Amino acid sequence: MTRPWMEFSAVDASRDPDAHARYLEDMAQRLTTLRRQSLERLPIAPGTTFLDAGCGLGELVIQVAAMVGPEGRAVGVDVSEQMLRRARASAEAAGSRAEFASASVTALPFADATFDVARSERVFQHLDDEECVLAARELLRVTRPGGAVQIADPDHTQWSVAAADRDVASLVVGWTVRRARSPESGLLAGGLLGDAGAVDVEVDISPVVIRSLADWWTMLGMQGALEDLVERGELSEERAAAFWADLERRDRDGVFLVAGLAYVTTVRVPG
Fold first, then answer.
1. Tens-digit pLDDT profile for residues 206-259
2. Which residue, 209, 225, 228, 264, has fewest beta-carbon neighbours within 10 Å?
3. Contacts of 46-49 spanning 24+ positions with Cβ under 8 A
4. Helix/strand/coil for 136
């Protein structure tokens, strides 16, 4: 079964690229407040040059293109041609000046100090340790001295699931952690950027509260979690069924709850 958020390092090779697009569209709606607050941390104004590294469907780039105006520049890069094709179509339909290019955050095709602001959202969780170091350096490299760099990412190790069977809840969280290449990406972003030479590190931590079973299954790509745990012999079918029944009851009673943390790290490039 497709688990979109786990396969974003290779969207074009996935079994169902359209599922990734639907997932990103859904997440864009859910993250409206977080995005607004994080953008407020950045010096974006008419004339600003802006980069979104790992832009997905490009909706944020289109939004910022309107903010920076014709005298500014808003660019999005992504490794997926499928996502870029959709992003360009959306920009054309909106009459936007947003630009899009195929590139990885670990090897950005721009000269040093090209942008006033560079940002990456929910990308570092899909990178391994070495790639995270490279990506942090690249974001700083393409940003001018005095400019701002921001990384917005979760910490999958800090999810908590309200459930009667706490041991199974821990197994399910562990299942999520094992499938993220950098599960603590949000927590570690400040250190990565600081080690790369950034200064004035600011970290905003926001709670992520999920109040429905369907939302949890969608947001974290939990399809198949219990099945995988049973297949691996980590969980019995009976206990998995009881855990699921408990979650369904909580959902019906309006007391379903999953909570996690999102980190938004904003830094300044020295100089």
1. 998 889 998 888 777 676 789 999 999 999 999 999 999 999 999 999 999 999
2. 209
3. 46/71, 46/72, 47/71, 47/72, 48/72, 48/73, 48/116, 48/117, 49/73, 49/75, 49/114, 49/115, 49/116, 49/117
4. helix
